[in-house]
Each structure stands twice: as structure tokens, then as C-alpha cells.
Amino acid sequence: MEGKNYINGEWSTAGDGVIEVMNPATGEKFGTVPNGGETEASAAVDAAAEAFKSWSKTTVYERASLLMKWHDLLLENKQEVAEIMTKEMGKPLAEAVGEIEYSASFISWFAEEAKRSNGRLIPASKEGKRIQVLKQPVGVVVSITPWNFPAAMMARKMAPALAAGCTFVAKPAKLTPLTAVRMYELAEEAGFPKGVINLVTGSASKIGRVFTSHPAVRKLTFTGSTEIGKELMKQSADSMLNLSLELGGHAPIIVCEDANMDLAVEGVMASKFRNAGQTCVCGNRIYVQRSIVEEFSQRLQEATAKLKVGNGMDEGVQIGPLVDQDGYEKSARHVQDAVDKGAKVLVGGDGRAENGAFFYNPTVLINATQDMLVMNEETFGPVAPIMAFDTDEEAVRLANDTRFGLAAYFFTDSLTRGTYIAENLEYGIVGWNDGAPSSAQAPFGGMKESGIGREGGQEGLDAFLETKYISIKL
Ligand code: ADP
């Protein structure tokens, strides 16, 4: 597949050559996209700035109707878009289809929600004054997204931005740009006016520099690592960009002795092994109450051993390849470090990296301790370390012992224990007996070094609106 950039309503191959997109399940080349840089990024921002003049003045009803056309086209073509995703990223096809549906759910939700971006009329303390509050689109929005959810991370930004009346420039990840290209083709078919949506693939640092320094840009919305998030925040200081940052996580999962064991195993499997463990909300550390740690570990081992690893295009595969060699090596390094420090492998602990394909087997470790790499760094792979705890206070303390604060999970049927744990976890997203809490209607985002701002929910729209206060003296 040959992908192009989309700038000011035109498809273009301009750039410094091309970037090759590889299939991580086979090691074969799947396609190319232009290696764009400053020139392309600037042209895209200029186009978005020009288009903002008219797009921001359209009614939200017009914008919502275009978004719903895009939503429908995406769902009509979901199988095809999902296949592109699986071939460039590796996730099982069923998960890729699920991601397209999830992406579409953000588009329809924000198409509706934007109709309610109401202002306010506030009673004034002085006679003859009127205090009006208006919500207005923030302006040109630029987005930088990662490879693990090539469709959803972009849709979650693009839909609310467009619904709010902003114009948009996307830079998808180098490893997975073709899903975005196909989504843009469908968006073009839906009929967005020229310049409203733009796509630039290529050099992250060059495009990133333009995004953070071009005077027309008003907002940067980013999903990726905490390190790059901090770098972009520093770069954005001079232009005082409005920022939304969805950064790394290191999710704890607490399983209490009174938990429904079936639900806990199911929830941990869903949170840990979706996308082969390559999600920022993936359970990374599992704390299990000592009285049930043996039974739980055995149940998790049995369920994990049944997972089918392979090419995501093959029927029934549940664990695809890791996206690249670095990803593979990180999982292997985390397991080795844990074993060196006293952990025991119950299942997995090995893999196969050959000819550009990187399969790491789903792994369960017991006897984990807080000093292990796997308990501190985001693994981004299918590795589940288990550590025993005694009291709820201890579990919460261990869970909060990290610079991250994105997602956390716990399992208990006790309202009292659950309320204590939920209210004391320093995390933006908490799943109580729920391994998959993310949805379009809910605010998704992190505390601490996991980021700034929320995506989804009413907050996800607010992120693209400025508040203007108009004081009227009669
Ligand atoms: P991940 O490990 O999830 O890929 P990264 O933070 O490395 O996380 O990448 C997330 C996105 O940020 C990708 O689109 C990547 O190309 C982009 N990126 C990486 N480095 C920079 C940079 N210096 N400036 C702007 N964007 C960057």
C-alpha cells in the first residue's frame, strides 16, 4: 500500500523519500508513506489556519453531520481498515475491528456532545451588567499519536476537535501510518472542506518542531511516552500551546481475597493481554492477597497457557507479534531481570524473534518484588508479574509507589474495601471489577507523570474549547 500525505485537500508524495512500513508478523514490507518534514508540516498548518476561518463559523449541526458520514463510512469499511492495521501493527484482526468500532464510537459521541457546548449567563453583582460565557473552538489543532492504537488515538482527538470547530493536522506514528491514511481517505469521501483535516507522515522531530513553533498552532494533543511528552511540553513553552498529553502508565491490579475469582481472572486477562500488552492502560503489576495468591496464580497460568500466539491475520489468534525488536527485547529483559531477582516463571518466559517478526509468549511470573524492572518500567509486552500483599493499606501504598498515574484496577466484592481502594488510588482511571474501563463517554487520562487533560467524555470536548468571558455594561 502506498500512502500519501493529505494537505489542503490534496494527496501528495512530497517529502525526503519514503518511510517503509513493515509487517511485524512476517518481517515483510507492507507499504510506504512519504518522509515528510518541515515544509510539509508548515504547509499543513497553513492550510488548517486558512480553513479555520470558515470552519469555525459553521454550525455544529453541519459539522456533526459530516462527522456522522465519516463514522458511517468507517464502519462500512471496518474490515478493510482493520486489515491494514493488523498488517502494519500486528494486533489480531478481531481486536483491530474492535478498535475501528471503538474509534467510530468517539466520532458519533462527539458529534452529539458538541451540540451541547453551552455557554452561561451569570447573574452579576452590579446593576446594569451582564456576564456572558462563551465556548469557542481553540483554533488549529495538531496531533501526534503512537503506533499501538493507530486508529483510536487519532479518532479520539480528531473527532472532538472537528466537532468543536477546530481544524486539524495529524502526524501518525512512523510504524503505523497507513491506517491513518485510509481513515483520511474515508474522511475526504465524507466531504470535509479542504484544509479542515490534514495528514503529515515523516520525521517526528522535524514535524514536531513545526507543530510546537508555528505561530498559527493553538493546541497540541499528544499520546506517547512520558519522555517525549515532556520534550514536547518544553518545546511548547515559548508559544504557550494549549496541551493535552496522554503519556505512559504502569497500571497496578489489586486482587482481594473476597473477589469473584472468575471475574478477576477474566479482568486481568483482558487488561494484561489485550494488544499483547502494548497499551498504556495495561495491567503491569498484579498484587494478590496472600491467602489466594496460589489459587489465583494457577488460574491465571491456566488461562494464559491457552492463549493462541501468531499472525494476527490468522483465525483465532489472540496474541500477535510485538511491534518491533525493541519491544521484544524489553519484554525479554524484564523477565530476565525478574528471574535474576527471584521471580519464577509459571508459563511463557520465552519467544521467537527471527526475520523481522517478534513473537513473545504470554508470561506469568510469581514471587515478584517491588525492586524489579517489570514492577517499575512500562513493559509494553505480555508479561504478568504477581506479588502477594497482606492489607489493603499495603496494596494501595504499593500501587501508588510510581511516578505514573494513568489506570489502576482492583477486584473485590466488598463495598467498603472497594470504596477505600478506589478513593485512595492516585490514578485517573480506576476499574473496579472491570478490566476494560475505556469508553467514549468517560474521561480518560492520567495523573502525575501520566499526563495532562482527558480524552472522551465532556472533558474530551472541553479540551478543544476556549472559555471567553464577555462583560457587558448596559
Ligand atoms: P511510543 O513508544 O508509544 O511510540 P513515543 O513517545 O516514542 O511513544 O512516540 C509517540 C509519537 O511521538 C510517535 O508518533 C512518534 O513518532 C512521536 N515522536 C517521537 N519523538 C518525537 C519528537 N521528538 N517530537 C515529536 N514527536 C515525536
TrEMBL record:
Listed InterPro entries: Ald_DH/histidinol_DH, Ald_DH_C, Ald_DH_CS_CYS, Ald_DH_N, Aldehyde_DH_dom, Aldehyde_DH_Superfamily, Succ_semiAld_DH
A molecular function (GO) term: oxidoreductase activity
Residues covered by the Aldehyde dehydrogenase domain: 14-470
Keyword Hydrolase: no
Keywords: Oxidoreductase
EC number: 1.2.1.-
Top-level taxon: Bacteria
Keyword Cytoplasm attached: no
Family designation: Belongs to the aldehyde dehydrogenase family.
Protein name: NAD-dependent succinate-semialdehyde dehydrogenase
Organism in which the protein naturally occurs: Planococcus liqunii
Species lineage: Bacteria, Bacillati, Bacillota, Bacilli, Bacillales
